[in-house]
């Protein structure tokens, strides 16, 4: 079996667009900084996002039936850090107090000044090893200013 630390080190060399995946259910909001997300289809419009399945707080994504994928700009590093989970004192309320959050169609929190935000109806959730894969049909889109993208590579933020 392959050593997980070797795998993580190799994957750290892979550039990923920094995004915050969000949801809301019964008055509770959840958001997580991720880099594993992509387009699945353009007809119908569908995206996927991957996040840690072992975190019990992420169960809300299966309960809510919707999520938003919010792509960050280079000037949103503070927001990326807030939603990363690195600071245990950063509550969900404090996270969502940062940024300009709204809603489009499904009720998932949408970052209104994201480079692009995809408001999705959850079509499928699949747990694969350590992560859950959310597949969503895009029900609404919001685009912000065309600014440089925030990327994560070599265990640090970069921009294009």
TrEMBL record:
<protein>
    <submittedName>
        <fullName>Flavin reductase family protein</fullName>
    </submittedName>
</protein>
<dbReference type="InterPro" id="IPR050268">
    <property type="entry name" value="NADH-dep_flavin_reductase"/>
</dbReference>
<dbReference type="InterPro" id="IPR012349">
    <property type="entry name" value="Split_barrel_FMN-bd"/>
</dbReference>
<feature type="domain" description="Flavin reductase like">
    <location>
        <begin position="11"/>
        <end position="159"/>
    </location>
</feature>
<keyword id="KW-0560">Oxidoreductase</keyword>
<dbReference type="InterPro" id="IPR002563">
    <property type="entry name" value="Flavin_Rdtase-like_dom"/>
</dbReference>
<dbReference type="Pfam" id="PF01613">
    <property type="entry name" value="Flavin_Reduct"/>
</dbReference>
């Amino acid at each position: 079996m392959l050593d997980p630390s070797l795998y993580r080190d190799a994957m750290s060399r892979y550039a990923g667009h920094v995004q915050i995946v969000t949801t809301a259910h019964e008055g509770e909001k959840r958001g997580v900084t991720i880099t594993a997300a992509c387009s699945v289809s353009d007809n119908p419009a569908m995206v996927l996002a991957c996040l840690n399945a072992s975190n019990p707080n992420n169960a809300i994504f299966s309960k809510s039936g919707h999520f938003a994928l919010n792509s960050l700009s280079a000037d949103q590093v503070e927001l990326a850090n807030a939603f990363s989970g690195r600071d245990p004192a950063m509550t969900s309320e404090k996270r969502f107090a940062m940024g300009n959050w709204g809603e489009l169609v499904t009720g998932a929190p949408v970052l209104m000044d994201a480079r692009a935000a995809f408001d999705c109806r959850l079509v499928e959730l699949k747990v694969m090893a350590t992560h859950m894969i959310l597949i969503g049909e895009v029900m609404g889109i919001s685009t912000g200013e065309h600014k440089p993208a925030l990327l994560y590579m070599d265990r640090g933020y970069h921009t294009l």
